[in-house]
Protein backbone atom coordinates (compact mmCIF):
# COMPACT_ATOMS: atom_id res chain seq x y z
CA UNK A 1 0.00 0.00 0.00
CA UNK A 2 1.48 3.32 -1.08
CA UNK A 3 1.71 6.39 1.15
CA UNK A 4 1.14 9.54 -0.88
CA UNK A 5 1.65 13.23 -0.19
CA UNK A 6 -1.23 15.64 0.35
CA UNK A 7 -0.74 16.96 -3.18
CA UNK A 8 -0.82 13.46 -4.65
CA UNK A 9 -4.03 12.73 -2.74
CA UNK A 10 -5.59 15.87 -4.22
CA UNK A 11 -4.45 14.74 -7.68
CA UNK A 12 -5.91 11.26 -7.08
CA UNK A 13 -9.28 12.82 -6.24
CA UNK A 14 -9.19 14.96 -9.37
CA UNK A 15 -8.07 12.08 -11.59
CA UNK A 16 -10.92 9.95 -10.29
CA UNK A 17 -13.44 12.74 -10.91
CA UNK A 18 -12.22 13.16 -14.51
CA UNK A 19 -11.58 9.54 -15.51
CA UNK A 20 -14.22 7.47 -13.72
CA UNK A 21 -15.94 9.88 -14.32
CA UNK A 22 -17.78 10.99 -11.21
CA UNK A 23 -18.96 14.32 -9.82
CA UNK A 24 -16.94 15.60 -6.87
CA UNK A 25 -20.07 15.71 -4.70
CA UNK A 26 -20.71 12.04 -5.49
CA UNK A 27 -17.13 11.11 -4.62
CA UNK A 28 -17.64 12.91 -1.31
CA UNK A 29 -20.85 10.93 -0.81
CA UNK A 30 -18.95 7.69 -1.46
CA UNK A 31 -16.20 8.61 1.02
CA UNK A 32 -18.76 9.59 3.65
CA UNK A 33 -20.63 6.32 3.15
CA UNK A 34 -17.39 4.36 3.62
CA UNK A 35 -16.79 6.23 6.89
CA UNK A 36 -20.34 5.57 8.10
CA UNK A 37 -20.11 1.86 7.28
CA UNK A 38 -16.94 1.59 9.35
CA UNK A 39 -18.41 3.73 12.13
CA UNK A 40 -21.55 1.64 12.51
CA UNK A 41 -19.49 -1.55 12.58
CA UNK A 42 -17.41 -0.24 15.47
CA UNK A 43 -19.76 1.73 17.75
CA UNK A 44 -23.06 1.17 19.49
CA UNK A 45 -25.72 3.89 19.24
CA UNK A 46 -25.07 6.91 21.44
CA UNK A 47 -24.89 10.68 21.09
CA UNK A 48 -22.62 11.89 18.30
CA UNK A 49 -21.34 15.46 17.86
CA UNK A 50 -19.81 16.28 14.47
CA UNK A 51 -17.63 19.39 14.24
CA UNK A 52 -17.36 20.59 10.64
CA UNK A 53 -15.12 23.11 8.95
CA UNK A 54 -16.16 24.78 5.71
CA UNK A 55 -13.89 22.88 3.30
CA UNK A 56 -14.34 19.43 1.84
CA UNK A 57 -13.54 17.74 5.15
CA UNK A 58 -16.43 19.67 6.65
CA UNK A 59 -18.57 18.61 3.71
CA UNK A 60 -17.72 15.01 4.59
CA UNK A 61 -18.82 15.70 8.15
CA UNK A 62 -22.17 17.10 7.06
CA UNK A 63 -22.81 14.12 4.77
CA UNK A 64 -21.85 11.74 7.59
CA UNK A 65 -24.28 13.56 9.87
CA UNK A 66 -27.10 13.17 7.35
CA UNK A 67 -26.40 9.45 6.90
CA UNK A 68 -26.16 8.72 10.64
CA UNK A 69 -29.33 10.70 11.29
CA UNK A 70 -31.13 8.65 8.64
CA UNK A 71 -29.97 5.51 10.47
CA UNK A 72 -31.54 6.80 13.72
CA UNK A 73 -28.38 7.98 15.49
CA UNK A 74 -28.67 10.90 17.91
CA UNK A 75 -26.52 13.31 15.89
CA UNK A 76 -25.68 16.98 16.31
CA UNK A 77 -23.74 18.52 13.40
CA UNK A 78 -21.91 21.76 14.29
CA UNK A 79 -20.25 24.11 11.83
CA UNK A 80 -17.42 26.49 12.61
CA UNK A 81 -17.37 29.94 11.04
CA UNK A 82 -19.86 28.87 8.37
CA UNK A 83 -19.89 32.34 6.89
CA UNK A 84 -16.24 31.97 5.87
CA UNK A 85 -14.82 30.52 2.66
CA UNK A 86 -16.82 27.46 1.69
CA UNK A 87 -16.03 24.73 -0.80
CA UNK A 88 -18.74 24.00 -3.35
CA UNK A 89 -19.35 20.52 -1.98
CA UNK A 90 -19.61 21.88 1.55
CA UNK A 91 -22.30 24.31 0.33
CA UNK A 92 -24.31 21.53 -1.27
CA UNK A 93 -24.24 19.33 1.83
CA UNK A 94 -24.90 22.31 4.11
CA UNK A 95 -28.01 23.34 2.16
CA UNK A 96 -29.26 19.75 2.04
CA UNK A 97 -28.85 19.28 5.78
CA UNK A 98 -30.24 22.65 6.87
CA UNK A 99 -33.42 22.02 4.88
CA UNK A 100 -34.16 19.20 7.29
CA UNK A 101 -32.77 20.48 10.59
CA UNK A 102 -31.04 23.32 12.37
CA UNK A 103 -27.25 23.25 12.43
CA UNK A 104 -25.56 25.20 15.26
CA UNK A 105 -22.68 27.42 14.19
CA UNK A 106 -19.62 28.58 16.15
CA UNK A 107 -18.40 32.11 15.47
CA UNK A 108 -17.13 33.18 18.88
CA UNK A 109 -15.63 31.35 21.88
CA UNK A 110 -18.88 31.94 23.74
CA UNK A 111 -20.64 29.73 21.18
CA UNK A 112 -18.71 26.67 22.36
CA UNK A 113 -21.37 25.57 24.81
CA UNK A 114 -21.99 21.85 24.39
CA UNK A 115 -22.65 19.27 27.08
CA UNK A 116 -20.34 16.50 25.87
CA UNK A 117 -19.10 13.74 28.15
CA UNK A 118 -17.17 10.48 28.10
CA UNK A 119 -20.19 8.46 26.96
CA UNK A 120 -20.45 10.52 23.77
CA UNK A 121 -18.59 10.44 20.46
CA UNK A 122 -17.06 13.44 18.74
CA UNK A 123 -16.41 13.21 15.00
CA UNK A 124 -13.74 15.67 13.90
CA UNK A 125 -14.34 16.92 10.35
CA UNK A 126 -12.80 20.37 10.64
CA UNK A 127 -9.71 20.21 8.41
CA UNK A 128 -8.47 17.55 6.00
CA UNK A 129 -5.13 16.44 4.59
CA UNK A 130 -4.65 19.60 2.55
CA UNK A 131 -4.06 21.80 5.62
CA UNK A 132 -0.89 23.87 5.12
CA UNK A 133 -0.72 26.25 8.08
CA UNK A 134 -1.00 25.96 11.87
CA UNK A 135 -4.51 26.14 13.32
CA UNK A 136 -5.21 29.24 15.40
CA UNK A 137 -8.11 31.49 16.43
CA UNK A 138 -11.61 30.12 16.87
CA UNK A 139 -10.67 26.80 15.27
CA UNK A 140 -7.93 26.31 17.84
CA UNK A 141 -10.39 26.99 20.64
CA UNK A 142 -12.80 24.38 19.25
CA UNK A 143 -9.98 21.84 19.01
CA UNK A 144 -8.96 22.59 22.58
CA UNK A 145 -12.57 21.99 23.65
CA UNK A 146 -12.66 18.66 21.78
CA UNK A 147 -9.43 17.53 23.39
CA UNK A 148 -10.74 18.30 26.87
CA UNK A 149 -14.36 17.12 26.60
CA UNK A 150 -13.61 13.49 27.52
CA UNK A 151 -15.55 11.95 24.62
CA UNK A 152 -14.23 9.33 22.22
CA UNK A 153 -12.82 11.29 19.27
CA UNK A 154 -12.90 9.96 15.71
CA UNK A 155 -11.24 12.03 12.98
CA UNK A 156 -12.34 11.98 9.36
CA UNK A 157 -9.28 11.22 7.16
CA UNK A 158 -6.72 12.94 9.43
CA UNK A 159 -6.83 14.74 12.81
CA UNK A 160 -7.56 18.42 12.23
CA UNK A 161 -4.41 20.50 12.62
CA UNK A 162 -2.04 17.63 11.79
CA UNK A 163 -0.03 18.12 8.61
CA UNK A 164 -0.15 15.17 6.24
CA UNK A 165 3.54 14.90 5.32
CA UNK A 166 5.55 17.48 7.28
CA UNK A 167 6.18 18.35 10.95
CA UNK A 168 3.28 19.88 12.88
CA UNK A 169 5.18 22.06 15.33
CA UNK A 170 2.67 24.83 15.98
CA UNK A 171 -1.04 25.33 16.32
CA UNK A 172 -3.84 23.22 17.77
CA UNK A 173 -4.21 19.56 16.79
CA UNK A 174 -7.06 17.17 17.54
CA UNK A 175 -6.04 14.22 19.71
CA UNK A 176 -7.95 11.44 17.97
CA UNK A 177 -8.66 8.08 19.53
CA UNK A 178 -9.33 6.72 16.05
CA UNK A 179 -8.65 8.06 12.56
CA UNK A 180 -10.51 6.78 9.51
CA UNK A 181 -8.23 7.52 6.57
CA UNK A 182 -9.59 7.59 3.03
CA UNK A 183 -8.05 5.04 0.62
CA UNK A 184 -4.45 5.21 1.93
CA UNK A 185 -2.61 5.89 5.19
CA UNK A 186 -0.81 9.18 5.72
CA UNK A 187 2.91 9.58 6.36
CA UNK A 188 2.03 11.49 9.54
CA UNK A 189 0.54 8.29 11.00
CA UNK A 190 3.98 6.63 10.94
CA UNK A 191 5.77 9.28 13.00
CA UNK A 192 6.27 8.67 16.74
CA UNK A 193 5.98 12.40 17.43
CA UNK A 194 2.33 12.21 16.31
CA UNK A 195 1.39 9.37 18.63
CA UNK A 196 -0.80 11.51 20.89
CA UNK A 197 -2.83 12.71 17.89
CA UNK A 198 -3.20 9.35 16.13
CA UNK A 199 -3.74 6.72 18.80
CA UNK A 200 -5.18 4.27 16.27
CA UNK A 201 -6.08 4.41 12.61
CA UNK A 202 -7.73 2.43 9.85
CA UNK A 203 -8.14 2.82 6.09
CA UNK A 204 -11.44 2.65 4.19
CA UNK A 205 -11.66 2.22 0.43
CA UNK A 206 -13.39 5.13 -1.31
CA UNK A 207 -12.77 3.93 -4.84
CA UNK A 208 -10.06 6.31 -6.01
CA UNK A 209 -9.03 5.45 -9.55
CA UNK A 210 -6.71 2.41 -9.53
CA UNK A 211 -4.82 3.61 -12.58
CA UNK A 212 -3.65 6.75 -10.77
CA UNK A 213 -2.74 4.82 -7.64
CA UNK A 214 -0.74 2.29 -9.63
CA UNK A 215 1.25 4.94 -11.49
CA UNK A 216 1.81 7.30 -8.56
CA UNK A 217 5.45 7.31 -7.50
CA UNK A 218 6.43 7.51 -3.86
CA UNK A 219 9.34 6.27 -1.73
CA UNK A 220 6.92 5.40 1.09
CA UNK A 221 4.99 2.16 1.39
CA UNK A 222 2.93 0.43 4.06
CA UNK A 223 4.01 -3.19 4.42
CA UNK A 224 1.01 -5.52 4.44
CA UNK A 225 0.25 -9.22 4.33
CA UNK A 226 -0.27 -9.51 0.57
CA UNK A 227 3.17 -8.13 -0.21
CA UNK A 228 5.12 -10.30 2.21
CA UNK A 229 3.05 -13.41 1.42
CA UNK A 230 4.37 -13.25 -2.14
CA UNK A 231 7.93 -13.41 -0.82
CA UNK A 232 7.50 -16.73 1.00
CA UNK A 233 9.42 -19.57 -0.62
CA UNK A 234 8.17 -23.14 -0.86
CA UNK A 235 10.59 -25.88 0.20
CA UNK A 236 11.57 -28.46 -2.38
CA UNK A 237 11.00 -32.14 -1.70
CA UNK A 238 14.66 -33.08 -2.17
CA UNK A 239 16.24 -30.11 -0.40
CA UNK A 240 18.20 -30.75 2.77
CA UNK A 241 19.61 -28.66 5.60
CA UNK A 242 22.54 -27.23 3.64
CA UNK A 243 20.05 -25.63 1.25
CA UNK A 244 18.63 -23.59 4.13
CA UNK A 245 21.79 -21.91 5.24
CA UNK A 246 24.87 -22.33 7.38
CA UNK A 247 24.41 -19.36 9.69
CA UNK A 248 26.79 -17.98 12.29
CA UNK A 249 25.53 -15.94 15.23
CA UNK A 250 28.25 -13.95 17.01
CA UNK A 251 26.66 -12.91 20.27
CA UNK A 252 26.68 -13.02 24.04
CA UNK A 253 28.75 -11.73 26.92
CA UNK A 254 28.98 -12.05 30.67
CA UNK A 255 25.49 -11.49 32.06
CA UNK A 256 24.02 -11.30 28.52
CA UNK A 257 24.13 -14.88 27.29
CA UNK A 258 20.36 -14.75 27.11
CA UNK A 259 20.69 -12.46 24.07
CA UNK A 260 22.71 -15.12 22.26
CA UNK A 261 20.27 -17.85 23.27
CA UNK A 262 17.27 -15.89 22.01
CA UNK A 263 18.95 -14.90 18.76
CA UNK A 264 20.08 -18.43 17.87
CA UNK A 265 16.76 -19.98 18.90
CA UNK A 266 14.87 -17.50 16.71
CA UNK A 267 17.24 -18.28 13.84
CA UNK A 268 16.54 -22.00 14.13
CA UNK A 269 12.78 -21.56 14.57
CA UNK A 270 12.59 -19.42 11.42
CA UNK A 271 13.90 -22.33 9.35
CA UNK A 272 17.70 -22.15 9.26
CA UNK A 273 19.42 -25.37 8.19
CA UNK A 274 22.47 -25.17 10.45
CA UNK A 275 23.19 -22.55 13.10
CA UNK A 276 26.47 -22.05 14.92
CA UNK A 277 26.87 -19.69 17.84
CA UNK A 278 30.25 -18.09 18.53
CA UNK A 279 30.17 -17.03 22.17
CA UNK A 280 32.48 -16.29 25.11
CA UNK A 281 33.63 -19.57 26.63
CA UNK A 282 31.83 -18.80 29.88
CA UNK A 283 28.49 -19.29 28.13
CA UNK A 284 29.15 -22.72 26.62
CA UNK A 285 27.02 -24.72 29.05
CA UNK A 286 24.21 -22.17 28.88
CA UNK A 287 23.99 -22.32 25.09
CA UNK A 288 24.30 -26.10 24.77
CA UNK A 289 21.64 -26.61 27.40
CA UNK A 290 19.18 -23.99 26.14
CA UNK A 291 19.54 -24.70 22.40
CA UNK A 292 20.67 -28.27 21.75
CA UNK A 293 20.05 -27.81 18.01
CA UNK A 294 22.72 -25.10 17.82
CA UNK A 295 26.41 -25.85 17.34
CA UNK A 296 28.85 -23.82 19.41
CA UNK A 297 32.33 -22.42 18.97
CA UNK A 298 33.85 -20.79 22.03
CA UNK A 299 35.99 -17.70 22.16
CA UNK A 300 39.20 -17.71 24.24
CA UNK A 301 37.62 -14.92 26.25
CA UNK A 302 35.47 -16.15 29.09
CA UNK A 303 33.38 -12.99 29.55
CA UNK A 304 33.64 -11.20 26.21
CA UNK A 305 34.59 -11.85 22.61
CA UNK A 306 38.26 -11.48 21.72
CA UNK A 307 38.64 -13.16 18.33
CA UNK A 308 36.85 -14.15 15.15
CA UNK A 309 36.33 -17.84 14.38
CA UNK A 310 36.85 -19.38 10.96
CA UNK A 311 34.08 -17.80 8.87
CA UNK A 312 34.91 -19.39 5.53
CA UNK A 313 31.93 -21.69 5.07
CA UNK A 314 29.05 -19.63 6.45
CA UNK A 315 26.19 -18.43 4.28
CA UNK A 316 25.60 -15.37 6.42
CA UNK A 317 26.40 -13.97 9.84
CA UNK A 318 24.41 -12.13 12.50
CA UNK A 319 26.41 -10.15 15.05
CA UNK A 320 25.71 -7.93 18.02
CA UNK A 321 23.23 -9.22 20.63
CA UNK A 322 24.80 -9.01 24.08
CA UNK A 323 28.44 -8.66 22.89
CA UNK A 324 29.24 -5.49 24.87
CA UNK A 325 31.85 -2.91 23.92
CA UNK A 326 35.12 -4.24 25.28
CA UNK A 327 38.13 -3.01 23.29
CA UNK A 328 38.78 -6.58 22.11
CA UNK A 329 35.25 -6.79 20.74
CA UNK A 330 35.82 -3.71 18.57
CA UNK A 331 38.57 -5.69 16.86
CA UNK A 332 36.27 -8.67 16.34
CA UNK A 333 33.77 -6.46 14.50
CA UNK A 334 36.55 -4.91 12.42
CA UNK A 335 37.95 -8.32 11.46
CA UNK A 336 34.52 -9.55 10.44
CA UNK A 337 33.93 -6.58 8.14
CA UNK A 338 37.38 -7.02 6.62
CA UNK A 339 37.07 -10.74 5.93
CA UNK A 340 33.39 -11.44 5.17
CA UNK A 341 31.99 -9.87 2.02
CA UNK A 342 28.46 -11.32 1.88
CA UNK A 343 25.55 -9.42 3.46
CA UNK A 344 25.35 -9.72 7.25
CA UNK A 345 22.91 -8.69 9.99
CA UNK A 346 24.17 -6.17 12.54
CA UNK A 347 22.42 -5.39 15.82
CA UNK A 348 22.82 -3.98 19.33
CA UNK A 349 26.40 -3.35 20.49
CA UNK A 350 27.78 -4.13 17.04
CA UNK A 351 25.81 -1.07 15.88
CA UNK A 352 27.14 0.95 18.81
CA UNK A 353 30.67 -0.02 17.80
CA UNK A 354 29.99 1.16 14.25
CA UNK A 355 28.64 4.42 15.69
CA UNK A 356 31.87 4.89 17.65
CA UNK A 357 34.08 3.92 14.71
CA UNK A 358 32.34 5.54 11.75
CA UNK A 359 35.10 4.42 9.37
CA UNK A 360 33.85 0.85 9.80
CA UNK A 361 30.59 1.79 8.08
CA UNK A 362 32.51 1.96 4.80
CA UNK A 363 33.51 -1.69 5.24
CA UNK A 364 29.97 -3.03 5.67
CA UNK A 365 29.19 -5.58 2.96
CA UNK A 366 26.73 -4.15 0.47
CA UNK A 367 23.21 -5.33 1.19
CA UNK A 368 23.81 -5.81 4.93
CA UNK A 369 20.89 -5.30 7.30
CA UNK A 370 21.25 -3.11 10.40
CA UNK A 371 18.51 -3.27 13.06
CA UNK A 372 18.91 -0.30 15.44
CA UNK A 373 16.40 0.94 17.96
CA UNK A 374 16.02 4.75 18.10
CA UNK A 375 18.74 5.13 20.76
CA UNK A 376 21.26 3.19 18.72
CA UNK A 377 20.30 5.09 15.59
CA UNK A 378 20.83 8.40 17.38
CA UNK A 379 24.36 7.27 18.26
CA UNK A 380 24.92 6.75 14.54
CA UNK A 381 23.59 10.14 13.45
CA UNK A 382 23.97 12.42 16.45
CA UNK A 383 20.77 14.48 16.35
CA UNK A 384 17.50 15.14 14.57
CA UNK A 385 15.05 18.01 14.88
CA UNK A 386 11.95 15.88 14.36
CA UNK A 387 10.93 12.44 13.12
CA UNK A 388 10.76 13.61 9.52
CA UNK A 389 14.42 14.66 9.70
CA UNK A 390 15.23 11.32 11.32
CA UNK A 391 13.56 9.58 8.38
CA UNK A 392 15.62 11.63 5.92
CA UNK A 393 18.80 10.65 7.76
CA UNK A 394 17.81 7.00 7.68
CA UNK A 395 17.24 7.12 3.92
CA UNK A 396 20.54 8.94 3.38
CA UNK A 397 22.52 6.31 5.33
CA UNK A 398 20.91 3.43 3.43
CA UNK A 399 21.69 5.06 0.10
CA UNK A 400 25.24 6.08 1.03
CA UNK A 401 26.39 2.69 2.33
CA UNK A 402 24.02 0.56 0.20
CA UNK A 403 22.54 -1.14 3.26
CA UNK A 404 19.10 -1.85 4.71
CA UNK A 405 18.19 -0.09 7.94
CA UNK A 406 15.44 -1.58 10.10
CA UNK A 407 14.63 1.23 12.54
CA UNK A 408 12.62 -0.51 15.24
CA UNK A 409 9.52 0.89 16.91
CA UNK A 410 5.81 1.24 16.23
CA UNK A 411 5.51 0.93 12.42
CA UNK A 412 9.17 -0.12 12.16
CA UNK A 413 10.70 1.71 9.19
CA UNK A 414 12.79 -0.34 6.75
CA UNK A 415 14.86 1.80 4.37
CA UNK A 416 16.57 0.44 1.26
CA UNK A 417 19.65 1.42 -0.77
CA UNK A 418 17.25 2.61 -3.48
CA UNK A 419 15.78 5.19 -1.09
CA UNK A 420 12.47 3.44 -0.45
CA UNK A 421 10.94 3.12 3.01
CA UNK A 422 8.51 0.41 4.12
CA UNK A 423 6.55 0.93 7.33
CA UNK A 424 5.56 -2.30 9.04
CA UNK A 425 1.91 -3.04 9.77
CA UNK A 426 2.43 -5.68 12.48
CA UNK A 427 3.59 -5.46 16.10
CA UNK A 428 2.30 -3.94 19.32
CA UNK A 429 3.54 -2.28 22.55
CA UNK A 430 3.77 -5.66 24.29
CA UNK A 431 6.87 -6.31 22.21
CA UNK A 432 8.70 -3.49 23.97
CA UNK A 433 10.50 -5.99 26.16
CA UNK A 434 14.08 -7.12 26.65
CA UNK A 435 15.29 -9.57 24.02
CA UNK A 436 12.69 -8.73 21.39
CA UNK A 437 15.34 -7.15 19.17
CA UNK A 438 17.62 -10.18 19.56
CA UNK A 439 14.78 -12.33 18.23
CA UNK A 440 14.41 -10.06 15.19
CA UNK A 441 18.13 -10.38 14.46
CA UNK A 442 17.86 -14.17 14.51
CA UNK A 443 14.80 -14.14 12.22
CA UNK A 444 16.40 -11.89 9.58
CA UNK A 445 19.70 -13.82 9.71
CA UNK A 446 17.82 -17.07 9.17
CA UNK A 447 15.93 -15.74 6.14
CA UNK A 448 19.10 -14.30 4.63
CA UNK A 449 20.79 -17.68 5.03
CA UNK A 450 17.88 -19.45 3.33
CA UNK A 451 18.42 -17.50 0.13
CA UNK A 452 16.00 -14.62 0.58
CA UNK A 453 17.42 -11.35 -0.73
CA UNK A 454 18.50 -8.77 1.86
CA UNK A 455 15.38 -6.72 1.08
CA UNK A 456 13.09 -9.73 1.38
CA UNK A 457 14.83 -10.79 4.59
CA UNK A 458 14.39 -7.36 6.17
CA UNK A 459 10.75 -6.96 5.10
CA UNK A 460 9.54 -10.51 5.68
CA UNK A 461 11.53 -10.85 8.90
CA UNK A 462 10.16 -7.64 10.37
CA UNK A 463 6.60 -8.55 9.40
CA UNK A 464 6.84 -12.09 10.84
CA UNK A 465 8.41 -10.77 14.05
CA UNK A 466 5.53 -8.36 14.55
CA UNK A 467 2.90 -10.90 13.55
CA UNK A 468 4.23 -13.44 16.07
CA UNK A 469 4.06 -10.69 18.69
CA UNK A 470 0.47 -9.88 17.73
CA UNK A 471 -0.60 -13.52 17.94
CA UNK A 472 1.20 -13.89 21.26
CA UNK A 473 -0.50 -10.79 22.62
CA UNK A 474 -3.91 -12.21 21.68
CA UNK A 475 -3.15 -15.17 23.93
CA UNK A 476 -1.13 -13.57 26.72
CA UNK A 477 -1.85 -9.84 26.77
CA UNK A 478 0.67 -7.08 26.18
CA UNK A 479 1.99 -6.96 29.74
CA UNK A 480 2.88 -10.67 29.85
CA UNK A 481 4.52 -11.07 26.44
CA UNK A 482 8.23 -11.98 26.52
CA UNK A 483 10.85 -12.38 23.81
CA UNK A 484 10.69 -16.16 24.19
CA UNK A 485 6.94 -15.96 23.56
CA UNK A 486 7.57 -14.22 20.25
CA UNK A 487 9.70 -17.19 19.17
CA UNK A 488 7.06 -19.63 20.40
CA UNK A 489 4.42 -18.01 18.20
CA UNK A 490 6.55 -17.87 15.04
CA UNK A 491 5.07 -21.17 13.77
CA UNK A 492 1.57 -19.70 13.96
CA UNK A 493 2.78 -16.52 12.26
CA UNK A 494 4.10 -18.58 9.33
CA UNK A 495 0.85 -20.55 9.20
CA UNK A 496 -1.31 -17.42 9.21
CA UNK A 497 0.80 -15.80 6.51
CA UNK A 498 0.66 -18.87 4.25
CA UNK A 499 -3.08 -19.35 4.79
Describe the structure.
With 499 residues, this protein is α/β, with parallel strands linked by helices. The protein folds into 2 domains: 6-218, YjeF N-terminal domain (Rossmann fold, 3-Layer(aba) Sandwich); 228-498, Ribokinase (UDP-N-acetylmuramoyl-L-alanine:D-glutamate ligase), CATH 3.40.1190. It is built from 17 helices and 17 strands. The radius of gyration is 26 Å and the shape is elongated.
Brief characterization of the structure:
The chain has 499 residues and is an alpha/beta fold.
Write down the Rg: 26 Å
Give the number of domains. Answer: 2
The CATH architecture classification of the largest domain is 3-Layer(aba) Sandwich
Strand order of the largest sheet: 8-17-16-15-14-13-12-9-10-11
Measured between the Cα atoms of the first and last residue, the distance is 20 Å
Features:
499 residues, alpha/beta, Rossmann fold, UDP-N-acetylmuramoyl-L-alanine:D-glutamate ligase, 10-stranded mixed sheet, 7-stranded parallel sheet, 17 helices, 40% helix, elongated
How are the secondary structure elements laid out?
Blueprint: H1 6-19, H2 24-42, E1 47-52, H3 56-70, E2 74-80, H4 88-98, E3 105-106, E4 121-125, H5 137-148, E5 152-156, E6 178-182, E7 201-204, H6 210-215, E8 220-223, H7 225-229, E9 246-250, H8 257-269, E10 274-280, H9 284-290, E11 295-299, E12 316-319, H10 327-339, E13 345-346, H11 348-356, E14 369-370, H12 374-381, H13 387-401, E15 404-407, E16 413-415, E17 421-424, H14 436-449, H15 454-476, H16 483-488, H17 490-498
Parallel strand pairs: 1-2, 1-4, 2-3, 4-5, 5-6, 6-7, 8-17, 9-10, 9-12, 10-11, 12-13, 13-14, 14-15
Antiparallel strand pairs: 15-16, 16-17
Helix pairs in contact: 2-3, 3-4, 8-14, 11-12, 14-15, 15-17
